[in-house]
Amino acid sequence: MAEKVKVWFDPEGDYLEVQFKDAPGFMRPTADDAVMERVDDEGHLLGFSVIGVSRFRKDHPLEAELAVSGE
Questions:
Q1: Half-sphere exposure of 34 (CA within 13 A, CB side)
Q2: Whole-model pTM?
Q3: Tens of pLDDT, residue by residue, the chain (71 residues)
Q4: For 38, which of 1, 10, 32, 47 could close a Cys bridge (C-beta 3.0–4.6 Å)?
Q5: Which residues of 14-33 are buried (b: 16+ CB within 10 A; e: fewer)?
Q6: Nearest to 38 by CA among 26, 51, 56, 30
Q7: DSSP 3-state assignment of 64?
């Protein structure tokens, strides 16, 4: 069975959010200032957000490391 993801983009705020699971959680920083990961209380990855999406060039995609669930 396929899993659904939710994607929001706010062009005024230049903000993108992707949610893998609809569950309570909080945002925490990553090594990249533009990327935050959304995790639950146990550290399971629920999604991520990117601020300043328009500054990334088409020929140089953003690469970020996200937490492995439970780590």
A1: 15
A2: 0.82
A3: 668 899 999 999 999 999 999 999 999 999 989 999 999 999 999 999 999 988 887 777 778 888 765 44
A4: 47
A5: eebbebbeeeebeeeeeeee
A6: 26
A7: coil
Read off the tokens for 21: 């699971």
- Tokens 């920083």 identify what position? 29
Contacts of 60 (CB under 8 A, 6+ apart): none
* Residue 65 · residue 51 · CB < 8 Å: no
Find the farthest-apart pair of alpha carbons in the chain and give their distance in angstroms, rounded: 36
